[in-house]
């Protein structure tokens, strides 16, 4: 069953240059899909169109059978609880602890952070600890995020993205700031935790080899166009 349908999607930021040109593809529930392509290809923009962080210019994005462009404010909030985000630079609140950052994911993008722990039920906290345990960082739960390594911070970022029980997680270059060893740990965790929880994954990457190793399917993007969609991406097709 299709969880996400993208149909003839175009996007321009300035009404002149099209950053995405007539993109169409469908993602099935439970699929792990990588989007690869050089810097500037439009990968980040594509993810931002899916959760409506930026308005699309034309075409349609249908998530869970509802067109995202036609959602009212309340439905848009609901959409964002169903779509988690993981970022290249983790986007954590450095002075908060690991567990506070994870629970912060339940507040959407609200900014008041004072007394964050007291706002959650024991059940919600238990869910946060469950994710930290799964991701192998439970022992760091009460450390401030700025005391962790990059790889550990990204695991916090994954836990935060998953705390609301999303159907889809969008990962924008999740390993681009990490060394190969930490990258492997992150990709292994991302793959196993999303598959265990039945969460669909759309991951922007620029290393073809990583995409090949982890994905059910690869979509190649170049200059805003889909240039490949399949399983066996050939290295020679890049560039
Ligand atoms: P990628 O993630 O593949 O590197 P991006 O989606 O970040 O690609 O960028 C695609 C193109 O869109 C680039 O030319 C970039 O400069 C442009 N772009 C991205 N974000 C904005 C923005 N907020 N305003 C204007 N142009 C943007
Ligand atoms: P990254 O690859 O780390 O996401 P980018 O340079 O692609 O970094 O984007 C950083 C920020 O700048 C993003 O929020 C993006 O929307 C914005 N941005 C990127 N390109 C442009 C542009 N040409 N004009 C305006 N904003 C841009």
Automatic annotation (TrEMBL):
Ranges of residues in domain ABC transporter: 4-239
MF GO annotations: ABC-type phosphonate transporter activity; ATP binding; ATP hydrolysis activity
Keyword terms: ATP-binding, Cell membrane, Membrane, Nucleotide-binding, Phosphonate transport, Translocase, Transport
Cellular component aspect of the GO annotation: membrane
Classification via CDD domains: ABC_PhnC_transporter
NCBIfam families for the chain: ABC_phnC (TIGR02315)
PANTHER family per UniProt: AMINO ACID IMPORT ATP-BINDING PROTEIN, PHOSPHONATES IMPORT ATP-BINDING PROTEIN PHNC
Protein name: Glutamine transport ATP-binding protein GlnQ
Species of provenance: Virgibacillus dokdonensis
Lineage: Bacteria, Bacillati, Bacillota, Bacilli, Bacillales
């Amino acid at each position: 069953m299709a969880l996400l349908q993208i149909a003839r999607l175009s996007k321009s930021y300035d009404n002149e240059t099209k950053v995405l040109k007539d993109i169409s593809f469908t993602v099935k529930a439970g699929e792990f899909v990588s989007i690869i392509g050089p810097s500037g290809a439009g990968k980040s923009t594509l993810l931002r169109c899916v959760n409506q962080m930026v308005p699309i210019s034309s075409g349609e994005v249908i998530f869970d059978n509802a067109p995202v462009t036609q959602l009212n404010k309340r439905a848009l909030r609901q959409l964002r609880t169903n779509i988690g985000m993981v970022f290249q630079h983790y986007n954590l609140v450095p002075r908060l602890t690991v567990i506070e950052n994870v629970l912060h994911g339940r507040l959407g993008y609200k900014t008041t952070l004072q007394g964050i722990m007291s706002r959650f039920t024991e059940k919600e906290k238990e869910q946060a600890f469950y994710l930290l345990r799964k991701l192998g960082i439970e022992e760091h739960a009460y450390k401030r995020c700025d005391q962790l390594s990059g790889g550990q911070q990204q695991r916090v970022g994954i836990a935060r993205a998953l705390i609301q029980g999303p159907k889809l997680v969008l990962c924008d270059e999740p390993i681009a700031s990490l060394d190969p060893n930490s990258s492997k740990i992150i990709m292994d965790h991302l793959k196993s935790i999303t598959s265990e929880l039945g969460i669909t994954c759309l991951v922007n990457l620029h290393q073809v080899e990583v995409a090949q190793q982890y994905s059910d399917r690869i979509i190649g993007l170049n200059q805003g166009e889909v240039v490949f969609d399949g399983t066996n991406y050939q290295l020679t097709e890049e560039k």
